[in-house]
Amino acid sequence: MARIILLKNKTVPTDPYDELFSQYQYEPVFLPLLRHSSINEKEVKEFLKSDLYLNEYQALIVTSQRCIETLAKLLQELRHEKFERLDQILNKPSYTVGPTTSQYLKNLGFTDIRGGKDAGNGSILSDIIISDPMFRTSAKKVLFLTGEIRKDIIPRKLKSIDFSVLELVSYRTEPLEDIQFRYEQLSQTAPEKSWLIFFSPQGTADIVSILKEKKHNFQIASIGPTTEEYLLDNGIKPAVVSSKPDAESLLSSIMNYEHAI
Hints:
The protein is of the alpha/beta class. The protein has 2 domains: 2-33 and 176-260, Rossmann fold (3-Layer(aba) Sandwich); 37-173, Rossmann fold (3-Layer(aba) Sandwich), CATH 3.40.50. It has 12 helices and 11 strands. The protein has helices at 16-23, 41-49, 51-56, 65-80, 86-91, 99-108, 122-130, 153-159, 179-189, 205-213, 225-233, 247-260, and strands at 2-6, 26-30, 34-38, 59-62, 94-97, 113-116, 141-147, 164-175, 195-198, 219-222, 240-241. A 6-stranded mixed sheet has the order 3-8-7-4-5-6, sandwiched between helices. The protein has a 5-stranded parallel sheet with strand order 2-1-9-10-11. The chain is elongated and about 60 Å long. The two termini are 17 Å apart. Residues 16-251 form the Tetrapyrrole biosynthesis uroporphyrinogen III synthase domain. GO terms for molecular function: uroporphyrinogen-III synthase activity. It comes from Ogataea polymorpha. This is Tetrapyrrole biosynthesis uroporphyrinogen III synthase domain-containing protein.
């Protein structure tokens, strides 16, 4: 059974990578790199409830699972408070990247989710938003929930054609302290031809340094082109780059590679 070391936190209550790879006789092992914590909850909640957001903003953009976790908490509070305009929040068009994030939004009760499986990254999502007929007849005002550290692709592209983008930071990310120790423990016991999956450059500096300095038996995979570029810049060529940032595409890419060699 091939081991798949996933450089990410395991999603709760279920993780699509864990479920899918287990079904195909792989052994998924998670190596968390980052600590996530919600911030500015009161500010975000008050804005979601405001007349300004409900009446003047056309859409919500959420591209991070961590933002969705914050949203889940705030929506639960609004339900508990019996907020009368909750349906207006849930019915507002919401744009997201990838099928997993799209499904999370659907589970929260959002009814008009756009992008999703058709948007593999922020640049593609920006193009989908820009081409949406909705913005031809209404003000181009959108709310973007984001983290303290984020790429500026979406707001930059939208603002370049006169969108008004309000960014509210809803979580912060910090690296865990013992990444190197936990990685070395896993690498010492990893079977030959185990896979090491990079999901983001964040939190991987120590691991990348070790890969460059020490011989290893890992097959490297990247979840997408941005992370691939980061690895290549560090002299690490991934064997596989997933065609889309989701479990199904990553599994397919890995299996195709294994069958070809």
